Amino acid sequence: MTKLTINSVKNSKIDHVNFNELPFGKVFTDHMFSCDYVNGEWVNPTISEYGPISLDPSARVFHYGQAVFEGMKAYKDENDDIFLFRPEDNFDRINKSAHRLAIPEFPKEFFFEGLEQLLLLEKEWIKTGKGNSLYIRPFVIATQPAISASPAEEYKFMIICSPAKSYYAGEVRVIFAEEYSRSANGGVGYAKAAGNYGAQFYPTSLAHKEGYQQIIWTDANTHEYLEEAGTMNIFFRVNDTLITAPTSDRILDGITRKSVLQLAKDNNIATEVRPVSVAEIKEAANNGSLKEIFGSGTAAVINPILGFKHGDFKFELPALTDNNYSSFFKKALNDIQYNLAEDKHQWRHKVTK
Amino acid sequence: MTKLTINSVKNSKIDHVNFNELPFGKVFTDHMFSCDYVNGEWVNPTISEYGPISLDPSARVFHYGQAVFEGMKAYKDENDDIFLFRPEDNFDRINKSAHRLAIPEFPKEFFFEGLEQLLLLEKEWIKTGKGNSLYIRPFVIATQPAISASPAEEYKFMIICSPAKSYYAGEVRVIFAEEYSRSANGGVGYAKAAGNYGAQFYPTSLAHKEGYQQIIWTDANTHEYLEEAGTMNIFFRVNDTLITAPTSDRILDGITRKSVLQLAKDNNIATEVRPVSVAEIKEAANNGSLKEIFGSGTAAVINPILGFKHGDFKFELPALTDNNYSSFFKKALNDIQYNLAEDKHQWRHKVTK
Ligand SMILES: Cc1ncc(COP(=O)(O)O)c(C=O)c1O
Ligand SMILES: Cc1ncc(COP(=O)(O)O)c(C=O)c1O
């Protein structure tokens, strides 16, 4: 394994950043990690100043979307210790995504060495206080200059970081998809493949025009089963039971999702992981048993959904009660992430020199 | 409309290119066309020396696959006149693709002005003689530096060109897909969206391992209907009838495909445009009525398929007879493309100063 090269910047740009007003994903830290795949191996792991990269216009990523990514966060506790949340799962998932996109897998040592050294260099960018975090974006792109429609032989793996405030997506109401779809059986929906995201922008813009912020995707075959949102898995609370769709080759295996399911178990909250039909959710809405809908994902942690629409059917969720699940899970997850609660399942990963 | 800026190179690199050995899509001409979308409009249409472009690592194309492309060819006749084949259809299609990916449409004048000026500059790269052509790749990528999962506000439109020899894909045998799929109902399969292509690389690599070069994709719901190949539409000749699947939101509306259908009509060849089931093609194979399978697309024009596999069922197509359709359509199309035959439908577009 080649040694990590670190070229740190002389002057940080951190003083020019207003940490009270941070739009999501627009401000980046001083450094980035990169590593190249050439001649069958990953070489040149390097941390250097954040800045533009130069690619041939024929690079495969531009033409064939051979690209995958991850989304994770670093948190700081009151002692200025830095923590990641289940980072091994992100590592495993980026390689699962890479495999499906015919991208060579990335070595574990490089990933963690690059990631942790980068975080230590950027430690001033991670602010203490619940809600503050550093959003971390590992990604891999096919860089080889050739437009033949076949897997590239050259890639670039990078990690860039963006400081984030507590993510408030605003009031979120959703449309249950009836016409457009996100993924096919036997497709790449379970991978964090770049192309899955751009494909959602247009249908989502149509939802915006109707006053809805997001879409809950349904199965492409029948549009009868609720699957997931654009960047969140989805939970339904019917009476006191928490219901969510099983993962499949169409649905991303969300790390927040599986953490919620585990915390539910730990707290004796009944869960059902099974196909969730649009019909049953509409019926539960009508008969008053539908108490909550929320999304789960790294960016927002837990995002309560205020209402939904399906065809002519429109529904506003009831106001959240004191013992609502979304606040409970958000607090439980945040407490573990910020080192404020016991970490029964070893989800916290402390970043050390 | 901003005026096109042309910065032509002093010294062409053409003398270093071996035109007898041209791998597909690896050698590019001296110039490229580019144009930027900023502040709500397309600006700076420029032809300049072919070379790397510089992008922020957070550019949306790397993360969310917001990118579309086209594939077209320029041909030269014996008088050194340059022709395009139905270029308006490529223009319309890139904008149809762009629309689905929430990318702003590109103005027609810019497209044709940029394309034709580029071709005139590169005219030495287009060699006379049937089979020789210049492959043209227009594409649009989201360049805005921000990783929020929403449509970018900045884009780059480019055209790059690669000289091509007569495309011989080698012997092509295909697998009819049973597990993996290319696109979903309500998805982006009909668009030339970058993500559609990278998603096929892995299943195709599995086919390679079994000795098959390509996959014919089937509908994702049932895998019972044959749709298209990775970069070609597919035709079946059963007795003397030519059958192909209708276009849909899952299938690319190929320009070669619709030209074949028109030429069939002009030549009194019976055609059926309707769902084509795997079962009927296997039955036709068994009873001897399946005479030919071929793919149609800009790169190969017409590509005969020699055999197929579906589960345990393997079939070798019969040897092509003198009056085979694939040679007939290939010649008919090439004759129009190279200005060797009457152009009844005004498909040829002469490139003039
Ligand atoms: C499509 C999709 N679903 C769900 C999620 C939530 O996954 P996680 O909880 O691992 O962030 C994400 C975001 O990562 C996503 O992109
Ligand atoms: C998916 C797909 N199908 C079919 C085709 C053939 O289309 P055309 O004949 O316009 O080149 C292409 C290539 O452009 C393609 O990418």
Automatic annotation (TrEMBL), chains A, B:
Reactions catalysed = L-valine + 2-oxoglutarate = 3-methyl-2-oxobutanoate + L-glutamate; L-isoleucine + 2-oxoglutarate = (S)-3-methyl-2-oxopentanoate + L-glutamate; L-leucine + 2-oxoglutarate = 4-methyl-2-oxopentanoate + L-glutamate
Q: In which pathway does it act?
A: Amino-acid biosynthesis; L-valine biosynthesis; L-valine from pyruvate: step 4/4; Amino-acid biosynthesis; L-isoleucine biosynthesis; L-isoleucine from 2-oxobutanoate: step 4/4; Amino-acid biosynthesis; L-leucine biosynthesis; L-leucine from 3-methyl-2-oxobutanoate: step 4/4
Look up the EC number in the record and give it. 2.6.1.42
Q: Which UniProt keywords apply?
A: Amino-acid biosynthesis, Aminotransferase, Branched-chain amino acid biosynthesis, Pyridoxal phosphate, Transferase
* Any one GO molecular-function label of the UniProt entry: L-valine-2-oxoglutarate transaminase activity
Its cofactor is: pyridoxal 5'-phosphate
Residues found modified as N6-(pyridoxal phosphate)lysine: K192
Top-tier EC class: transferase
One example of a Gene Ontology biological process annotation: isoleucine biosynthetic process
Q: Which residues form a coiled coil?
A: none
UniProt record similarity statement: Belongs to the class-IV pyridoxal-phosphate-dependent aminotransferase family.
- UniProt function note: Acts on leucine, isoleucine and valine.
Instruction: List the PANTHER family.
Output: BRANCHED-CHAIN-AMINO-ACID AMINOTRANSFERASE, SUBGROUP IIII AMINOTRANSFERASE
Name of the protein in its database record: Branched-chain-amino-acid aminotransferase
Annotated organism of origin: Aurantibacter aestuarii
